[in-house]
């Protein structure tokens, strides 16, 4: 502590010279000498005792409680996801007219059911029974998912021989099996109980059909009605079933990947061998990513759907158009230059796509060769070490098994991405192609194969493209495979296009 009295005098007045008065008094505040601590040294609790260090048993209990809370959070998140998913089925919230159309499309020969649904009470009963049955089949999907989850975990020993978090992070293993088997079985038992309750609600609601038949003069066949409702639910949950199948595949992939890494570490590799093993797997992952890029770019070219990254090439078109708007250019010259400019841009886009494909293919070959060279160096080092010669065949086989597994999983993910190009969701039917790429319009965009127009005409680009390409042509060898209704539909569509363009 600093003695403040020795540094600052505590007199009541001090004589200081001033500009106008030769002597000026300035009153200074006295400091309390009883304060021996600064404000930063004061505490709200002076008589606080030091915290005792927790014992190891208490730390273990806290870790167990934290793990239990994490498992409960996983179960709670699954329950919330279940409630969200069941409430987002679009066909459950459809209008009365749309519900009748779905009933007609899902169940063939259901005219008597449509007549029975003319009254609002009967239609409300059908909608409520559909909702209850939808909940039953949702719980069945959930139960089947977690049953497969447990089967995959037990088959590939994900709980009996678990991996540490360090190994999982270093080898990029998908950690889908972090929750314990006990919590998974507990959640599965909860789903089973909810399924039983949902089935009881369906049975109780089915008994109310007699009351509706007594109020209505028309008698409906119960078996046909239940079959029609089941058809609506099965068709409405088609996308949901696909999502659950995808989740099952991901769980199986994660369990198998966990097993492959565990087999490699069971060979007791040295630190150098672990480093080489991780380099080989990383090279395989990069190879698969490059191959995926090749497949996606080729798909872009095949369906003439260019990525958004090529839009910067179209920025020069506005400058050219502004210059061509000057009166020094005649109409024919303006048309020729504009067409040439569009074809140059289209050709540049095509050349860039080919260049990116060649770069990705070269990367695939380079990563593959890099992984093979590292594998050969690993084998040579293990041969020189007498204590590691016994594990060579087993260790290399385990590494190659995970390489094969990585390639298979990447191919599956690539096929799902390619399938997106052809997917037309009910919610985004009109804007599905505007998210990450641009869909070329054959009747508007100028392609590298488009003709060069050197004479000014009043026809639009769509009309010129229609004259250049003509209507859709079906070869005679394939016309026999078209139905009469399909042929008439094609003719009507092409006739409508011609009329609209002209």
UniProtKB/TrEMBL annotation:
Biased composition (Low complexity): 56-69
Region (Disordered) location: 1-69
Protein name per UniProt: Uncharacterized protein
Organism: Rotaria socialis
